[in-house]
Give the backbone structure.
Amino acid sequence: MSNERAARAQRVRGVYLLTPDIGPDNVESMLSRLGAALAAGAAMVQFRSKPDRTIGAPIDMDFRRALAERVQAVARRHHALFLVNDDVDLAVALDADGVHLGRDDGDLHLARAKLPHQLLGVSCYDDLQRADGAIRCGADLIAFGSMFPSGTKPGAVRASPDLLRAARQRHPEAKVVAIGGITADNIRSIGRGGAHAAAVIGAVFTAADASSAARQLSDEFARGQAQYERERTAV
């Protein structure tokens, strides 16, 4: 692992923001919430842009690229990590801090080769064996979930918080990320499970006050991590 990649991996922690699916009319509001959440302590943001599942509309690629650049600019202003979801070529073009890939988002070996100094995150759902394979391909982040019922992906497979602890023990060299349905009411259990970071969308971007929401999430997650460390060292 290069020094640059290792330095990025050390910054994987706490509240991990995933941008919501939006249209042009909602850009300024989303960016304002993003900036407020990053200022309040969120350390990372992943740019997501999916087709409109309600009408089957394709993505406007010019809008997507322009939005990604603006999200990246906000992240840089707050010294936060910026990752791209699903799209290795866009991550390369923007010199992002990394890319995150799901089951159908391309070859992991190829992604690692194209981004040798950046982070490679991989969705592992509820499957430790998939995590094993991701690590062999050079993954830095292994993400599990949905941890709880998720409005973004209501049909997603469910993973237990106990899986986070197992993944961390099995792959101590990796950063373990939890995703799916995480709120201020349950994020402490994610920290206690051993996750390095907790990915959220609605808990921040639909909150009345994004700054307060991010701060509460960060505080609760830190309390859970402190419990994890106490329990781990007591064994």
Summary: The chain has a mean pLDDT of 93. Strands lie at 14-18, 44-47, 81-85, 98-101, 119-125, 141-144, 175-179, 197-200.
